[in-house]
Structures are given as C-alpha cells and as structure tokens.
Design goal:
The complex is a heterodimer of chains A (about 160) and B (about 140). With about 160 residues, chain A is mainly alpha-helical. Chain A is built from seven helices and no strands. Chain A has one domain. Chain B is mainly α and about 140 residues long. Chain B has one domain. In chain B, helix 1 runs antiparallel to helix 5, helix 3 packs antiparallel against helix 4 and helix 4 runs antiparallel to helix 5. Chain B is elongated. Classes of the chains: A mainly alpha (about 160), B mainly alpha (about 140).
C-alpha cells in the first residue's frame, strides 16, 4: 500500500516535471535563435568570433547540465516503465547523448575548420532538441492518463 | 544512503541560500531594483538588460528550478509518508517555481506588473525549498 501511495506521489512529481521542464528547452532554443538566427551564416559568425577560452566557458556549464537534465528525465522513465519498452528508451538515450556530444564538439570545429561545420551544429542542435522533446513526450504519454488506471496496470513499482 | 541524501540536501540548502544572496546583489530584491536591472535607469546611466542576457538568465533559472523541483520533491516523498504533506510540498514547490518563471518572462515581455509576481514567488520559492531541505536534513539525521 505504501509503495502505491509513493508511486502516486512520484507520478505527480513526474507530471509536474513534464509541465515545467519544457521551459528550459524552449528558452535554450530561443536563445540559440537570438544568437545565430538558425542559419549556417549566423552560426558561423557567432562561433568564429569566439576565442577558444570564450567557447570553453559555455561548454563548462553545458557539458554537465545537459546530460544531468537528460539523465533525470530518462531516470523517471526507467524507474516506472515496463522492461520490454526499454529498447525505445535506450534508443532515445543514445540519440540524446550522441547529439549532445556533437553539439559540444562542433563549435570547436567551426573555430578551427570553418563554415561546413555550421550545418552539422544546426543539425545536431535540432536532433538534440527533438530528442529532449521526444523524451518528455514519452514521459507525458506514459504518465498523463488517469492515475487510477496507472497505479495498477502501466505503472510498476520503482526499480531502485 | 541517508548520508548521501543528507550531504546532497546540505549542499542544496547552501545553494538556495547563496542563490538568494547573489540574486539580491545582482538582480535586486524589491520592485525598483528589479525594474532598474531589467529596464535600466537614465538617472544613474544604467543600461537595460539586453534580450540575450535576459533569456540567458531565464534559461539558467528554469534549469535550476526544474532540477531542484525534481530532486527535492523526490527526496521528500521518500522520507515522509504523509500523502497530504507530500502533495502540499510538491504543489508548493511547483507553483512557486512556475510562477517565478512566468513572473520573470512576463515582467520583461508583457507588463511591468509581473515584477511583483516574480519578487513574491522568488521569496516563496526560496523559503519553501529551504524549509523542505532543512526538514529532510532533520529527518535523515
């Protein structure tokens, strides 16, 4: 009984997390748009002006925070979703972490090798945003139906 | 496990305290100070906050409040069995976090009156997250 009660409270946290988490993704995308206009020219202009240290300052925070954000979101799915659905989550996790890595590396390539990598940066950024939104949608679709059905059928006990 | 959670909570409480102190100095703690930070002040030749700087601040704030919401709420649920208390804590952290972000966005983009929402929800968010962290530390001791 206690586990079920805790499940229901965790479900509330997950539901509300799905509401508040998009703020970070949307504000990040808008900030990227403000700085680069989402064009290869804009991306090249923005990153080519930066020094190695200037860009490393941006990397410094994001290299920790984006994987943390992804880990928290994926962790919520992993705790509650049935084991046979793990393949989809694993795929999302791989896409997400690889796109984050490419996102972080490509600006160094732009600084050293030039404009062709601006296309890669935009593509990687769009894939990362799409993967983050897909992860949140997966959470939302799984947990945002009536709680009475959830607590017995689709929501298993948290696997710690 | 309680040692790990306690350590995390101690650092969370410290973060909330330092966050309040730093933002008090950088952003201001009353209507006039926040207004001057966002929109500048001609008398003191203070420049308004640029759109990029504002969205950078909104982006980092939304990240921190989201992470703190998920971490503190999950720990509280694990430590306290009362469902009513769990709901009160989860909803109060969520509502103060979301109104903080809405207030900040609204103050810059919609109306200056949203500054009040930002200030009030910032104080409530700080008090609630600090209190919940301290309650959880006390529980794990």
């Amino acid at each position: 009984m206690e586990n079920m009660v805790n499940d229901r409270s965790y479900l509330l946290v997950i539901r509300l997390f799905c509401v508040i988490a998009p703020a970070t993704i949307i504000s990040g995308a808008f900030l990227f748009y403000l700085k680069t206009s989402f064009t290869p020219e804009g991306v090249f202009e923005y990153y080519s002006k930066k020094t190695l240290f200037g860009y490393t300052e941006i990397v410094w925070f994001h290299i920790f925070s984006i994987p943390l954000f992804a880990m928290v979101t994926l962790h919520f799915i992993h705790l509650f979703v049935d084991p046979h659905k793990r393949g989809k989550i694993l795929f999302l996790a791989k896409v997400l972490f690889i796109s984050v890595l490419i996102n972080i590396i490509t600006p160094y390539a732009i600084i050293y090798f030039g404009k062709p990598f601006a296309f890669v940066k935009i593509a990687a950024f769009l894939v990362m945003e799409a993967a983050l939104i897909a992860t949140l949608l997966e959470l939302k679709l799984h947990f945002c139906t009536p709680l009475r059905k959830k607590s017995t059928s689709r929501c298993s006990k948290p696997r710690h | 496990m309680s040692l790990i959670i306690r350590s995390l909570l101690i650092f969370t409480a410290l973060f909330v305290a330092v966050n309040a102190a730093v933002l008090n100095g950088l952003f201001g703690s009353d209507y006039d100070e926040v207004y001057k930070t966002l929109f500048g002040d001609e008398e003191t030749f203070l420049d308004p906050l640029s759109k990029e700087s504002f969205y950078l601040y909104l982006h980092t704030t939304s990240f921190f409040v989201t992470m703190l919401f998920s971490i503190i709420s999950s720990i509280f649920i694990r430590l306290f069995d009362s469902v009513t208390m769990q709901k009160i804590v989860v909803w109060s952290i969520f509502l103060s976090s979301s109104s903080l972000l809405i207030g900040l966005f609204g103050a810059f983009e919609i109306s200056k009156h949203f500054i009040w929402l930002y200030i009030i929800s910032f104080y409530i968010w700080t008090i609630v997250t600090m209190s919940v962290s301290l309650c959880c530390i006390w529980r794990t001791w």
